[in-house]
Automatic annotation (TrEMBL):
Pfam families referenced in this protein's UniProt entry, alphabetically: DUF1292
The protein's name in its UniProt record: UPF0473 protein C7459_12731
Domain of life assignment: Bacteria
PANTHER family xref list: UPF0473 PROTEIN CBO2561/CLC_2432 (PTHR40066), UPF0473 PROTEIN CBO2561_CLC_2432 (PTHR40066:SF1)
Family: Belongs to the UPF0473 family.
InterPro entries: UPF0473 (IPR009711)
Amino acid sequence: MSEVETNQVITLTDDSGQEHEFEVLEILELEAKTYTILQPLEGAEEEAIILRLEKDADGNDALVGIEDDEEWEKVAEAYDTLLFEEQGGNDADL
C-alpha cells in the first residue's frame, strides 16, 4: 500500500535544501510503474510535475525524477487523456 495519496499535501526538499509543498493531483499506474502528478502550492500557476513512485531499500515510498523523455511523454499523455475524460470529453471532440 502506498503512503502517497491523491489530494495529499507533501513536502519535498530540493538539491539546495529548500522545502517545497505540493498537492498530489493524481496517482497513475502505467506499464507496471506508479507515477505521481504534483502541483506546487506556492505559485499555483506553475506547471504540475511528474515523478515516479518507487520503494527505497527500507520499503518506504520514494519519489524519483524521470530521466527518460519517452517515459515522461507517455505519462504526460496518459494524464492528459485522464483529464480529458474527467471533463466529459470523447473521441469525437478530438
